[in-house]
Amino acid sequence: MKSYRAFVDGLVQGVCFRGWARDVARQLGLRGWVRNLPDGRVEVLVQGPEPALARFAEALADGAPLSRVIRVEDTLEECEEVFSSFEVRY
Fold it and tell me: How far apart are CA 90 and CA 78, in angstroms?
């Protein structure tokens, strides 16, 4: 199993992006977390099968309905920690 980490830049805070990312991840059966960063970006770390991670990456690039994604910096990593669910971190 792999982990997918992404830093999403653009209009992604204050537009329900984290809740939307949580819903998409749960629909795809992924586990992990999403959080706002002080610099205005959103960071996401998800784990699951690679096909589901690829679909999640595509969804992130499109963004939530009220967001405007400018750039996604992402990596595929080996799992260092295993998560049991998906959560929004504050």
Answer: 25
